[in-house]
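Subject: design request, 440 residues
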């Protein structure tokens, strides 16, 4: 019978997705169906243990620390300082605040590492200002959602940490690998904004380019905010701290800055920070735990091996394989939230691409850029929903405006997919040797 077929839980999973059931609950429901109705040889208590043991890992403590860092940033004045830097650097360009929007997301990525947090913050701060400058709501919304895709790619994005743990690569190397695609995504979005602004006559937010003195003065005022990414990266690269410890140090650093330097962090902000951290961490960890149990089911039915064999039988050429995987990920990204797609698909795809000579760090860059593009695409793009719900932008209007930005990001995806030297430029500068060379 079809209801007892080993692949039926996957059908249940997608049915629940289309019914708009939360990702974690969909994974749990599909997994429990398998262990209750199909494979009854596994005791229920062992299944429940999988939920608990999935998150019993010291490196996962980095996730709540970096989530808390993003929250502290919003209340301590760090985001305001970063926006001032972005405005000085890009406000004179065609598109003005839309350019600032793109650059701010890149600066925010080094601190918040969350696409939805970045999208929510910029929706509340920058979109009203963009409307005052005469930009239409649908364009402002599209720019904000598109630029927020950069934040999780630039360290310390949570997706970078999760992928590093799944693929067994060091978090420090994964952080270094995130910079090049993050910078390329930012530049591609800014070029797209410039082209659109020239056609539609969107004015700059500054009358003239900032002088070196103005730029230097603003950087000096914002130096503490700009230092946080370097504290995180250098701490890990020099072996002073683990990623988890780096997250804790960064939170403490941001708290001290907010209280003593910028004097904007007040005691009444602490409960709000804790609440936001607990809610976001609970959401992420529940998805990880649910995906672990779903992966337990797939391992028992040897589904990862079947998928790997199917992909390898499809082609012997690694470049064709990467093209097929990219197309598959772009399609899946239209329906599944990026973090969930990462947790579900990375364990399935990493062995397949490594068997064709693709370095796991390189594939991590490809995978994360791809799933962030999925956050913009209808019908279930998470950043799309975040921005549209906050500013009340009509879905169909947003879709019309966002396509040029999706195309720009696809160009970046193509570059990092087919040029390992571009994708891993910074890790290689720090001595990283790709695994497929056989030199590690």
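Subject: RE: design request

Done. Sequence follows.
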């Amino acid at each position: 019978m079809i209801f007892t077929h080993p692949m039926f839980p996957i059908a249940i999973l997608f049915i629940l997705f289309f019914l708009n059931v939360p990702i974690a609950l969909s994974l749990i429901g599909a997994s429990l169906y398998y262990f209750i109705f199909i494979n009854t040889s596994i005791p229920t208590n062992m299944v429940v243990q999988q939920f608990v043991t999935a998150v019993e890992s010291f490196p996962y403590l980095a996730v709540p620390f970096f989530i808390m860092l993003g929250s502290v940033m919003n209340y301590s004045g760090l985001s305001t300082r970063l926006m001032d830097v972005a405005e000085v650097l890009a406000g004179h360009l065609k598109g003005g605040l839309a350019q600032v929007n793109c650059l701010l997301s890149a600066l925010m990525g080094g601190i918040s590492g969350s696409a939805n947090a970045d999208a929510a913050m910029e929706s509340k701060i920058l979109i009203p200002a963009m409307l005052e400058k005469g930009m239409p709501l649908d364009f402002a919304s599209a720019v904000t959602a598109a630029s927020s895709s950069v934040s999780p790619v630039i360290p310390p994005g949570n997706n970078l940490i999760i992928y590093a743990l799944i693929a067994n690569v060091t978090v420090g190397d994964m952080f270094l690998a995130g910079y090049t695609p993050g910078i390329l995504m930012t530049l591609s979005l800014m070029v797209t904004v410039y082209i659109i602004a020239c056609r539609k006559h969107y004015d700059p937010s500054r009358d003239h380019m900032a002088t070196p003195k103005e730029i230097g003065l603003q950087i000096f005022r914002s130096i503490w905010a700009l230092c946080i990414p370097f504290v995180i990266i250098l701490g890990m690269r020099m072996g002073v701290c683990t990623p988890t410890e780096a997250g804790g140090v960064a939170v403490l650093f941001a708290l001290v800055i907010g209280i003593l330097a910028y004097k904007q962090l007040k005691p009444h902000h602490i409960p709000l920070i804790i609440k936001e951290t607990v809610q976001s961490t609970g959401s992420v960890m529940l998805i990880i735990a649910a995906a672990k149990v779903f992966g337990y089911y797939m391992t028992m039915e040897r589904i990862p091996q079947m998928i790997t064999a199917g992909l390898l039988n499809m082609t012997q050429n690694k470049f064709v394989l990467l093209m097929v995987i990219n197309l598959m990920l772009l399609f899946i990204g239209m329906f599944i939230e990026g973090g969930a797609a990462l947790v579900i698909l990375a364990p399935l795809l990493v062995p397949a691409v490594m068997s064709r000579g693709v370095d796991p760090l390189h594939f991590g860059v490809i995978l994360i850029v791809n799933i962030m593009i999925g956050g913009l695409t209808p019908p279930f793009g998470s950043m799309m929903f975040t921005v549209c719900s906050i500013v009340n932008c009509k879905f169909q209007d947003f879709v019309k405006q966002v396509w040029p930005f999706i195309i720009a990001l696809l160009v970046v995806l193509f570059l990092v997919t087919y040029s390992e030297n571009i994708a891993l430029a910074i890790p290689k500068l720090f001595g990283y040797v790709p695994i497929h060379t056989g030199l590690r």
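The chain has a mean pLDDT of 82.
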